[in-house]
Write a structure and sequence with these properties.
The protein has helices spanning about 1-5, 10-35, 40-50, 65-75, 80-90, 105-110; strands at about 60, 95, 100. With about 110 residues, it is mainly α. The chain has a three-stranded antiparallel beta sheet.
Length: about 110
């Protein structure tokens, strides 16, 4: 691998960029886990899955994902995820029946102190 990184400069540039991006994401996840509430962690995860903040247009619809999977991603129980998903739905931040539809207003959960 070291030889390839030395010889293939385009590959090494992409590899290093990927590793740095991954490191940043791990640090962001750790900070999120330490300082944010379950509600904010769930909102952030849903927005990340919808690719908000990426160069391409964000997806409005997410593929079917279980509350159990979301709970594992944010470090809580499925029942807590259910509580906040219902709250987000009642407030109009999301719609779901199988697939989750994200509304731009979900960003307000992250921005609200």
């Amino acid at each position: 691998m070291i030889r390839v990184l030395h010889r293939e400069h385009k590959f090494s540039d992409r590899f290093i960029a990927h590793m740095l991006g991954r490191n940043i994401r791990v640090e962001e996840d750790l900070i999120d886990q330490l300082f944010n509430s379950i509600e904010k962690r769930l909102a952030r995860t849903l927005l990340m899955l919808a690719r908000y903040g990426k160069q391409n247009q964000p997806q409005k619809m997410l593929p079917k994902i279980s509350q159990e999977t979301l709970a594992g991603m944010i470090g809580t129980t499925r029942s807590r995820v259910n509580v906040f998903m219902n709250k987000f739905r009642k407030l109009g931040f999301i719609k779901y029946k199988g697939e989750i539809q994200i509304d731009n207003s979900l960003l307000s959960v992250l921005l609200h102190e």
